[in-house]
Amino acid sequence: MRSEMSKYEANEEKELRPHSYDGILEFDKRLPNWWLFTLYATVIFSVGYWAYYHWTGHMEDGWVRVKSELEAVRLAALSQGAPPDDQQLWNFSRDAKIVSAGEKTFRATCAACHGENLQGGIGPNLTDGQWIHGGRPMDLFHTVVNGVAEKGMPTWGPVLGQQRIAEVVAFIISKNPTMEKPPGGGDVVQ
Ligand code: HEC
Fold this sequence. Notes:
This protein is an all-alpha fold and 190 residues long. 59% of the residues lie in helices and 0% in strands. The chain folds into 2 domains: 2-55, no CATH class; 66-175, Cytochrome c-like domain (Cytochrome Bc1 Complex, Chain D, domain 2), CATH 1.10.760. Bound molecules: heme C (HEC). Residues 109-110, 112-114, 122-124, 126, 131-133, 140, 143-144, 148, 151-154, 156, 168 line the site of heme C (HEC).
């Protein structure tokens, strides 16, 4: 009781804030140091955080990484038998890792007939925008999977599997300036 009394008296010496809410008054007390330091620390941290993300470009890297990881998941789904679609193959063609994997397959298995630069040879040119079997990403995919036996294009489905064929088609799309982005292509989450 005594200590409560002295507390009250001590507060009495402090100034009251000028406002009153329903008769409730407030002492004008200094904010505690731990509270102020936390506030200052968060302000300083926010400046550093902002600068780090907007000036160093790390945020973009994060985004590119997420995109690339999502494509990798989709690519792995292909090896489990999930069929791709136009948008997916287009997105793969914008992914440097997938394209370079496709390029390796192309050099090893396709370049002998279609040329090192896809310019054609025994097989047709794959960059001129003229397609015998259709120019949508999935048309290319089906042609490569099934081949065109009577014309000398081997059936690659059982040899390479869906994943490697998707990679090689992504490589062809990336090298083909006439190929147009399909509706929905380029979106990471579909
Ligand atoms: C032995 C030669 C040969 C090899 C190897 C070969 N192709 Fe072909 N490819 C052809 C021929 C020939 C055609 C044309 C088929 C036709 O006229 O119908 C063709 C057609 C195609 C087409 C369709 C072109 C169009 O205009 O519609 C694509 C796409 C294609 N090849 C991709 C590939 C890929 C990818 C590989 C490697 C995995 C590959 N080819 C390996 C000979 C080959």
